[in-house]
From TrEMBL:
It catalyses: oxaloacetate + acetyl-CoA + H2O = citrate + CoA + H(+). Keywords: Transferase, Tricarboxylic acid cycle. SUPFAM superfamilies: Citrate synthase. It comes from the Bacteria. The lineage of its organism: Bacteria, Pseudomonadati, Bdellovibrionota, Bacteriovoracia, Bacteriovoracales. Pathway: Carbohydrate metabolism; tricarboxylic acid cycle; isocitrate from oxaloacetate: step 1/2. InterPro entries: Citrate_synth-like_lrg_a-sub (IPR016142), Citrate_synth-like_sm_a-sub (IPR016143), Citrate_synthase (IPR002020), Citrate_synthase_AS (IPR019810), Citrate_synthase_bac-typ (IPR024176), Citrate_synthase_sf (IPR036969). One of its GO terms (biological process) is tricarboxylic acid cycle. GO terms for molecular function: citrate synthase activity. Belongs to the citrate synthase family. This is Citrate synthase. The active site is at H301, D358.
Length: 423
């Protein structure tokens, strides 16, 4: 294959370098395009745009492959655990047993929030959306850790921040849950694994199988290359904003229902279908109607066009949790019915729309007793190591630039201002 692409602009032909990744992905490097031709590229939603070179996560949407640092997601879900996967994503290699023990201790050492953050979390109305609380409290951590606000975090800073945010965000989520339910707080227990500790802080009990299922869920969410929230983290981080506001930006991007907010939206949709008589076919028709803005939540993905490998694993975790907790959720039957019909429906088949990771995650969270509006905050806990790894990679890339796309302007051309009495 040629190592250059030719671009014929009529009066000029230029050659653009072709870049190839370690899994054979090819890109045309247009970094000199504007300087040499005056042209920019236009790519709504960045559907064809590689925003960076990255060694964190590989996914192939056509083949349904997802690997963190080269390790297949199926193997990690089966045999690893969330903290180990977090380390792998952040540092690029699996930890030694000593590194793992120390890392767990370090994360546990951040199971206390600054008093001001505790007060802040407790000040929100009980009905506040947990994503707003989490985003705000994460940004507000910057007020208590001024040493980390400089534009050039050191290696030691990055090591601490990684463990600190993994520890503290878990506490913010569980604290807001307990407070919003009018329940007493339960302190973190450093002896427990990450998910058992979280379940204890939330509910005062932690079944080993349920904790394992939650751990798998967090592993599946841990990174997903340049998705909307990871890209937001990179965009914010590219200005050398501090890590707290950078992660807060990621949380905000995740909140939307086309992204992480889909897990809440799936449950609300299943609830609505149940209330309206449980007719899955009616919901499918609505989703297909181009006049109707309704979409089948939990279906479709920007990159997975055959199946979402995470959805396959999550179905098994879902069955484990429902069986263990003896939950017979009618929503699951509606979900299964919807999936079955959609997978046979020409509209969905033609557009390659399959259930994504969020189609089943909400059912697990519901079975665990987590309120619907808290589902996306659970996704934050899972995605946090991914955001941090993307941020670290960005900040260590000496060729990284501030993200500043261009546009094709379509507004009014120059005109003269008229004072109020002249209009
Ligand atoms: N229900 C009905 N139709 C759909 C759906 C859906 N869930 N998703 C896509 N389509 C249709 C579109 O209307 C479009 O149809 P057209 O070609 O006739 O115009 C076609 O499928 C292609 O869809 P796009 O919106 O162009 O695909 P895009 O890659 O931009 O969007 C997205 C992907 C946002 C995930 C979309 O599929 C969607 O909105 N899904 C529902 C929300 C959801 O589950 N989000 C979670 C994603 S996973 C995650 O972030 C963790």
């Amino acid at each position: 294959m040629a190592d250059k692409a030719k671009l014929d602009l009529g009066d000029k032909v230029i050659e653009l370098p072709i870049v190839e990744g370690s899994e054979g992905e090819k890109a045309i490097d247009i970094s000199r395009l504007r300087a040499e031709t005056g042209f920019i590229t236009l790519d709504n939603g960045f559907v064809n745009t590689g925003s960076c070179m990255s060694g964190v996560t590989f996914l192939n949407g056509e083949k349904g492959i997802l690997r963190y640092r080269g390790y297949p997601i199926e193997q990690l879900a089966e045999s690893s655990n969330f903290l180990e996967v977090s380390w792998l994503l952040y540092y690029g290699e699996l930890p030694s047993s000593t590194e793992m023990v120390n890392f767990k201790k370090k994360v546990s050492s951040f199971s206390k929030l600054p008093e001001g953050i505790e007060k802040l979390v407790d000040t929100f109305p009980k009905t506040a959306h947990p994503m707003g609380v989490l985003s705000c409290a994460t940004a507000a951590l910057s007020a208590y850790y001024e040493d980390f606000l400089g534009p050039q975090p050191t290696k030691e800073d990055k090591d601490v921040l990684f463990a600190q945010l993994l520890g503290q965000l878990k506490v913010i989520v569980s604290r807001f849950y307990r407070k919003s339910q009018g329940l007493d707080l339960i302190a973190s227990n450093p002896e427990l694994d990450y998910c058992s500790d979280f379940l204890m802080m939330m509910f005062g009990e932690a079944d080993a199988d349920v904790a394992k299922a939650l751990d798998v869920l967090l592993i599946l969410h841990a990174d997903h290359e340049q998705n909307c929230s990871a890209s937001t983290v990179r965009v914010v981080g590219s200005s050398h904003a501090n890590i707290f506001s950078t992660i807060s930006g990621g949380i905000d991007a995740l909140w939307g229902q086309l992204h992480g907010g889909a897990n809440q939206a799936v449950l609300e949709m299943l609830d609505e279908i149940t209330t309206e008589g449980g007719d899955a076919a009616k919901a499918l028709e609505k989703a297909k109607d181009k006049e109707d803005p309704f979409k089948l939540m939990g279906f479709g993905h920007r990159v997975y066009k055959n199946f979402d490998p995470r959805a396959k694993i999550i179905k098994v975790a879902c069955d484990t949790v429902l069986e263990k907790l003896k939950v017979n959720d009618p929503l699951l039957n509606i979900a299964k019915g919807l999936e079955e019909q959609a997978l046979k429906d020409e509209y969905f088949v033609k557009r390659k729309l399959y259930p994504n990771v969020d189609f089943y995650s909400g059912i697990i969270y519901k079975a665990l007793g987590i309120p619907t509006n808290m589902f996306t905050a659970m996704f934050v806990l899972g995605r946090l190591p991914g955001w941090l790894s993307q941020w670290k990679e960005l900040r260590e890339d000496t060729s990284a630039k501030i993200c500043r796309p261009r546009q094709i302007y379509t507004g009014a051309t120059e005109r003269n201002y008229k004072k109020l009495d002249e209009r």
